[in-house]
Design goal:
The chain is 26% helix and 37% strand. By secondary structure, it is α/β, with parallel strands linked by helices. It has a single domain, classed as Double Stranded RNA Binding Domain, CATH 3.30.160. Strands 1, 2, 3, 4, 5, 6 and 7 form a seven-stranded mixed sheet that branches. β6 and β7 form a beta hairpin. The chain starts with a helix and ends in a 7-residue tail after the last helix.
Length: 186
């Protein structure tokens, strides 16, 4: 019974530690659900910042920019907002994505090695080290009132991943989590 309880506690802890960290904040004096239309803040440069540039095409600025914009528009449309075409939008959307690489290492000690006979000069226990290249990223979405040009809502998600192929899935998950508590349009 105690073994089952320990396994459940370990699973909960692992899930908690590996989940994305999402922070949302908004101007409580503004009723965001009153807005109907949105558009993007236009920039001359793509707002993706990296400490080191990736050679993987899945992590190129253009691919990530297109993916982020497409996913944000899809989530806004699900919430009842529509993209402004001919008129001034009620609010504008902007984002900043920051990515970096970290080298993480860990040592595993006290692993029993049965290959070593009793009395051998080596210790009975071995130690090993793991080194991993870990990518981490932060995505911040800002929503700015179209008329007053002031920040009305912000969502930020942080996560880490080991393989470049995981980046699109992590971005999709981050955007969905950011929009989880975003108000629906009336």
């Amino acid at each position: 019974m105690k073994t089952i309880q320990l396994l459940i506690a370990g699973a909960i802890l692992t899930t908690t530690l590996t989940g994305q960290d999402v922070i949302r904040d908004y101007d409580r004096s503004v009723n965001v659900s009153q807005y109907k239309t949105f558009d993007w803040v236009e920039r001359k440069t793509i707002p993706i910042i990296r400490v080191e540039e990736s050679t993987d095409p899945r992590l190129s600025s253009e691919v990530l920019n297109d993916q982020i914009r497409s996913l944000v528009e899809k989530e806004l449309e699900k919430k009842g907002y529509r993209k402004a075409t001919n008129s001034e939008p009620d609010f504008r959307v902007s984002y900043v994505a920051i990515g970096k690489y970290d080298l993480s290492s860990s040592a595993w000690a006290a692993t029993y090695s049965p290959q070593q006979p009793y009395g051998h000069w080596r210790p009975f226990y071995d130690s090993t080290k793991d080194h991993n290249l870990q990518r981490s990223g932060t995505l911040t979405l800002d929503f700015v009132d179209g008329a007053e040009n002031k920040l009305i809502w912000r969502g930020t998600a942080r996560d880490t991943f080991n393989k470049p192929k995981d980046a699109p899935k992590k971005i999709d998950k981050a955007i969905k989590k950011i929009f989880k508590k975003f108000p629906k349009s009336k």
